[in-house]
C-alpha cells in the first residue's frame, strides 16, 4: 500500500471518529435541557425559571469558554490525545450528576461535563490537518454534522427517562440516565484513542504561548467570530427557545412543540456536510453571501408578530347643518341628506387557527357618534372610522420559514469554518478555538437576551428581530471588507480565496504576509 493511500485511509478514519465523537459530545452537552425540564415537570425539584435557565445554560457556557484553551492544547499536543482525554474527563462529572441532589450539586456537575462542548475546537483542528485545502470544507462540514447530537438527545432522552422511571412513577431512576451518558463518553474516548492516529502542526514546535495566540490580533478573526455567533449561537439558542415559543404563541403541548422544534434542529446539523461541499466548490464567501441574504429575508418575515390591530380610520363628516333624524349601522340622515356607512363585518369567514392565510386581512367599518335629535353643524363628525388588521402568522408558514433558517444556519456553520484554514492554514486550532468560543457564547447569552426582550416588550418575535439585526451587521461588514480588498489590495489574491485556487492561498500565512498584512486588519 502506497504512502498516499495509507494517508488517505487514515484521514477518512480520523474524520469518521471525529464526527462520531462530536455527535456523542454534543448530545451530552445538551442533556440538561431534557433532564432538568423532566425533573421539574415531575415535581422532583421546585426550581424557579431562573434557576432552570442557569442549570440548562451552564454546560453551554463552560463548553464555550473552554474552546480556546482546548484549541491551544490541540495545537501543542495534537488532537488524538486531547480529544480522548477531553471525553474521558467529561465522563467523570457526567457520572457525578447521578449523585446530585441540590441546585449547587447540579450546577457544579454541569460546569464539569460542559467540557464536552469544547470538543468542537479539537475536532475542527484535528480534521483540517488531515485534508488539503480544496477538500477541507467538505471534511469540516461532515464533522460538523455532529451537531445532530442535539436532536438525538431531544428525541431519545425523554423516551429513555420515561422508560427508566416508569413514566414518572419511580422518579428516582432518572439517575441512570447520566450514568448511561457517562459510560458512552468514556467508551467513545477509549475508542477514539485506539482508532485514530497522532498528527499535529509541526511548524509550531517550540512556539511560545504568545506566538500561538498571535493570530488573535487580526480583526478578521473576530469578524469570523461574529458570523459564528449568529450561525452557531443562533442555532443553539433557537433549539432551546423554539419549544416555549410554540407553546405560548401557538398553544401547543410540550410534546408537539418538541417535534416542531426538531424540524429546525435536525436538518441544521445534518446539512453542514453539504455546506462544506458548497464552500469547496464555489467558495466560502459566496456561500456566506447566500445564507446571510436568505437568513435576513426569513428573519424579517418572522419578525412580524401574530397580531390583531385596531386603529382610527376615515370618518364621515356632515356636509351641512341640520338635525339628525335617523341613525343605523348602514346610514345616518341629517335633515334631507343621507350619509352611507360601512357596517361592521365580523371576521368569521375563516378559522384563525386552521385556515392558511399568507397575508394580513384588513377590515373597516363606521361607528355612529351622534343620536337622533342631535343638532349638528357643517363638518361635524357623524361616524368615526375604525380599521382592523389581522395577521395570522400561520403555524405552517412560520415553521417553513424556521426550517429555511435552520438550513441556512447549518450551511453557514460549515462556511465560517472553511474560511479559517483558507486564511490561517497553520493556526486552525487557535483561530477555530476563539471563533468557537464566540459561537458558544452566543448559544448561552442569546436565550437570556431573548427573555429580557420578551419581558420588556411582551412581543415574542423580538428574538427574530435581534437575529435579523446581527445578520444585517454581518452582511454589511463582510461586503465592506470585500470592497476594500478588491479596491485597495490584491484582486488576484482575493480571487484565489474566493474561488478556491491554490497558487498562493495554500502557502503558509507568513509567506503571504507582505501581500495581505494590511488586509488582515479587516
Features:
522 residues; alpha+beta; Growth Hormone, Chain: A; OB fold (Dihydrolipoamide Acetyltransferase, E2P); 3 domains; four-stranded antiparallel beta sheet; three-stranded antiparallel beta sheet; 9% strand
Please report the number of helical segments. Answer: 20
Structural class: alpha+beta
- Bin the helical content: 55-70%
Outline: elongated
Q: What order do the SSEs take from the amino end to the carboxyl end, as H and E?
A: HHHHHHHHHHHHHHHEEEEEEEHHHHH
> Can you list the strand order of the major beta sheet?
4-3-2-6
Q: What would your notes on this structure say?
A:
- The strands form two sheets. The chain has a four-stranded antiparallel beta sheet with strand order 4-3-2-6, with no helix packed on it.
- The chain has 522 residues and is of the alpha+beta class.
- Helix 4 (67-77) runs antiparallel to helix 17 and helix 12 (219-249) packs parallel to helix 17 (428-457).
- The longest helix is centred in the middle third of the chain and has 31 residues, at 219-249.
- The protein folds into three domains: 1-196, Up-down Bundle (Growth Hormone, Chain: A), CATH 1.20.1250.20; 222-305 and 401-522, MFS general substrate transporter like domains (Growth Hormone, Chain: A); 307-392, RNA polymerase II/Efflux pump adaptor protein, barrel-sandwich hybrid domain (OB fold (Dihydrolipoamide Acetyltransferase, E2P)).
- 65% of the residues lie in helices and 9% in strands.
- The chain has helices at 3-29, 31-41, 49-65, 67-77, 79-96, 103-113, 119-128, 133-144, 149-164, 176-195, 209-212, 219-249, 254-270, 272-282, 284-302, 395-423, 428-457, 462-488, 491-499, 513-520, and strands at 307-317, 322-327, 331-334, 337-340, 361-368, 375-376, 381-391.
Amino acid at each position: 500500500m502506497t504512502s498516499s493511500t495509507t494517508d488517505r485511509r487514515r484521514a477518512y478514519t480520523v474524520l469518521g471518529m471525529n464526527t462520531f465523537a462530536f455527535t456523542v459530545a454534543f448530545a451530552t452537552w445538551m442533556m440538561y435541557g431534557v433532564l432538568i425540564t423532566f425533573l421539574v415537570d415531575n415535581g422532583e425539584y421546585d426550581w424557579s425559571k431562573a434557576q432552570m435557565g442557569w442549570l440548562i445554560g451552564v454546560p453551554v457556557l463552560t463548553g464555550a469558554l473552554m474552546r480556546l484553551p482546548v484549541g491551544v492544547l490541540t495545537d501543542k499536543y495534537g488532537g488524538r490525545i486531547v480529544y480522548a482525554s477531553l471525553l474521558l474527563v467529561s465522563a467523570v462529572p457526567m457520572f457525578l450528576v447521578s449523585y446530585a441532589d441540590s441546585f449547587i450539586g447540579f450546577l457544579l456537575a454541569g460546569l464539569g461535563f460542559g467540557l464536552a462542548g469544547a470538543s468542537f475546537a479539537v475536532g475542527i483542528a484535528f480534521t483540517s490537518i488531515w485534508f488539503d485545502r480544496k477538500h477541507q470544507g467538505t471534511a469540516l462540514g461532515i464533522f460538523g454534522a455532529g451537531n445532530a447530537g442535539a436532536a438525538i438527545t431531544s428525541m431519545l432522552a425523554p423516551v429513555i427517562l420515561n422508560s427508566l422511571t416508569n413514566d414518572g412513577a419511580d422518579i428516582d431512576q432518572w439517575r441512570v440516565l447520566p450514568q448511561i451518558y457517562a459510560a458512552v463518553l468514556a467508551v467513545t474516548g477509549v475508542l477514539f484513542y485506539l482508532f485514530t492516529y497522532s498528527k499535529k502542526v509541526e511548524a509550531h514546535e517550540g512556539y511560545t504561548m504568545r506566538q500561538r495566540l498571535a493570530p488573535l490580533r487580526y480583526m478578521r478573526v473576530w469578524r469570523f467570530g461574529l458570523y459564528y455567533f449568529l450561525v452557531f449561537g443562533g442555532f443553539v439558542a433557537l433549539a432551546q427557545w423554539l419549544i416555549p415559543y410554540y407553546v405560548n404563541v401557538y398553544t401547543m403541548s410540550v410534546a408537539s412543540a418538541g417535534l416542531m422544534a426538531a424540524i429546525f434542529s435536525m436538518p441544521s446539523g445534518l446539512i453542514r456536510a453539504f455546506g462544506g461541499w458548497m464552500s469547496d466548490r464555489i467558495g466560502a464567501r459566496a456561500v456566506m453571501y447566500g445564507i446571510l441574504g436568505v437568513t435576513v429575508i426569513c428573519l424579517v418575515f418572522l419578525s412580524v408578530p401574530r397580531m390583531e390591530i385596531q386603529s382610527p380610520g376615515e370618518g364621515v363628516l356632515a356636509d351641512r347643518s341640520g338635525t339628525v333624524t335617523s341613525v343605523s349601522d348602514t346610514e345616518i340622515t341629517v335633515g334631507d341628506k343621507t350619509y352611507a356607512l360601512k357596517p361592521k363585518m365580523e371576521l368569521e369567514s375563516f378559522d384563525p387557527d386552521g385556515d392558511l392565510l399568507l397575508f394580513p386581512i384588513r377590515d373597516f367599518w363606521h361607528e355612529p357618534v351622534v343620536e337622533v335629535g342631535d343638532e349638528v353643524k357643517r363638518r361635524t363628525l357623524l361616524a368615526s372610522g375604525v380599521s382592523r388588521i389581522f395577521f395570522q402568522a400561520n403555524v405552517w408558514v412560520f415553521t417553513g420559514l424556521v426550517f429555511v433558517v435552520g438550513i441556512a444556519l447549518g450551511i453557514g456553520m460549515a462556511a465560517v469554518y472553511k474560511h479559517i484554514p483558507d486564511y490561517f492554514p497553520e493556526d486552525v486550532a487557535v483561530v477555530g478555538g476563539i471563533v468557537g468560543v464566540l459561537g458558544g457564547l452566543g448559544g448561552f447569552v442569546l436565550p437570556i437576551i431573548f427573555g429580557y426582550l420578551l419581558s420588556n416588550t411582551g412581543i415574542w418575535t423580538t428574538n427574530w428581530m435581534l437575529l435579523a439585526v446581527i445578520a444585517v451587521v454581518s452582511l454589511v461588514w463582510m461586503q465592506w471588507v470585500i470592497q476594500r480588498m478588491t479596491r485597495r489590495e490584491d484582486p488576484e489574491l482575493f480571487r484565489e480565496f474566493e474561488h478556491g485556487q491554490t497558487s498562493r492561498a495554500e502557502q503558509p500565512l507568513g509567506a503571504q504576509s507582505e501581500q495581505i498584512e494590511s488586509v488582515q486588519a479587516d
